[in-house]
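My main concern about presentation is that the manuscript never shows what a single data entry looks like. The format is easy to grasp once an entry is in front of the reader. For illustration, here is how one protein appears when written out as sequence plus structure tokens:
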Amino acid sequence: MGTSDYSVVEVADIITQDADISARLLRLVNSPLFGQRAKVETLSRAVTLIGANELRNLVMATAAQRTFTGIPEEMVNMTDFWRHSVTTGVMAKTLAEQSNVLHSERLLVMGVLHDLGRLVIYLSLPDESRDILHITGGDTWILADTEQEILGFNHLDVGAELMRSWHLPESFIEVAGFHNAPANAKEYRLEVALVHIAKAVANGHMVGLSVDEMLWAIDPSAWDTTGFSHQDVSALVTEMIIRSEETMDMIIAPARRAQA
């Protein structure tokens, strides 16, 4: 079944079957991130406001936390991983709003899911993953090249295939596959460029870089595609970080408490 086959009632019924996801999504929809003036109290109303397809994708993003479990702490701190993913998603959505992108909620979910290929590799090839992480020393910017050298493919390839296997739209597949190299994107260059910029800012924020330092790794093609300048993005960083912290409290904190 494709995303266009889901009706409002069907999506609401599916979400209702999971109390944890239901509660988390209602909190998210009522957060400042979505800017609803009236309180959203029912899942069917949430679906109507956001759209069945986008809410389905949000469900998938939150459910992904349950899918990837059992990865040793020595490979990845899962709280940090999801913190980075959610931060990227929130920042991509904020940038999309500034660009007047239609259905900016898509960018939130694309950002949350963009790096899942890493987790697939960690779960599927733990020994090789340990070697790769030892070589990179935690430098995520050389991770894909190191994976390519050792495995013959990288986590972007795997992420794109995962999005395809989940029957997500082509835009999700391109973001997962090209977020490190937005100049190589095909049909969805804007979405890929927005997530690329958001990822760079999120990476910098995670390690405590200044705003200027956050922007050094952004591919020049991303500036051309989005029309943003360094100054434009710099002016949004504080707002994006605040939004990210609010959203992480809704997505990550409940999951962490549930696992405690």
